[in-house]
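Escalated from tier 1: S-adenosyl-L-homocysteine holo job.
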Amino acid sequence: MTAAPVNLLDFDLPGLVAWFETIGEKPFRARQVMRWLHHFGADDFAQMTDLAKTLRAKLETLACIAPPVLMAGQNSDDGTRKWALQVGPGNQVETVYIPEGERGTLCISTQVGCALECSFCSTGQQGFNRNLTTAEIVGQLWWANKALGRDPRDATKADRVISNVVLMGMGEPLLNYDATVRALKVMLDDHAYGLSRRRVTVSTSGIVPAMDRLSQDCPVALAVSLHAPNDRLRDQLVPINKKYPLKVLMAACQRYLAFAPRDFITFEYVMLDGINDSDAHARELIALVADVSCKFNLIPFNPFPGTAYTRSPAPRVRAFASRLAEAGIVATTRKTRGDDIDAACGQLAGQVVDKSRRVVVHDQRTGRA
Ligand code: SAH
Ligand code: SF4
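Tier 2 regenerated the structure:
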């Protein structure tokens, strides 16, 4: 029986070095290959011209370079671009590139769907299929670089650059911990994408034990999806709050910052008309975050088919931001980008063969718990 070839996009550098050792090759060869894969976007060992022919032949038999398959790309009038990538039969995830001045942010997915069922989120309403592999997470950056015209002979040149990565696409990154952290390490590695720790942001709905692990393993910038100033409301909007309520979450934010000095937590707050957007909510929020060094990102709700929520009117969002500002908290309002191609926050749908919800539907029909 022959073992399935190893996909080299699944490795961070220490992993690749270790695998090269198992095939009797030196660490510097692993570093060379890492650069071919990620600086130059190589998808064929034949391109790796500074490797000996014998090594290339060996890699051909033992390994492969298998990014997810690109299915479709869409361009928004405002320059935002969205790609759908196939990740196994019937499943697609989405990746979004958002250019803004000198900056280019890539928003990537970490799971096919999401199991957490936040009531205002399109991904959450679709159910959950599986975790993405490291190759599928890193593969989104790998594809985007190609699509944006990164010059294969000069890793510093591209038509558009990706200066920031946010894990704010489909899925909860901290519930796919190992594959996500390995992918983060590839993003930060100088032999791969060389992004700075502060330009890579993990967004979480508040998986407290994994936040603690991340502070030790790879303390990148952290965004926490807050969305409500008290447990009663947050239990409804972000059901994982029942497991990790606000007091516990705020303490975890403080612990995280102890390992990421001079940083701040970005609190994301989706503005839902008449639900969480009053001055009273703002006041409660100010008291809640008093001991956490933070900024707020107010996100006007992006509707999707079947949702009962509506977006807070712009003057309400401005008033809410003013209340926070009066208390000395920086609050920016996220511009809605790419909504003509359904690429805005919370609208990423992809295609999810739901494995979680189907069981529930079946149970409801049969009347069994
Ligand atoms: N699961 C992670 C990361 C993906 S969601 C998390 O929840 O943080 C990225 C951000 O988009 C989160 O802040 C999420 O709450 C927000 N979001 C989800 N649905 C939205 C919608 N319909 N409109 C605006 N923002 C939304
Ligand atoms: Fe999952 Fe984040 Fe959507 Fe909640 S907001 S359902 S955690 S993707």
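The pocket of iron/sulfur cluster (ligand 2) is lined by residues 114, 116-118, 121, 123-124, 171-172, 205, 225 (CB under 6 Å).
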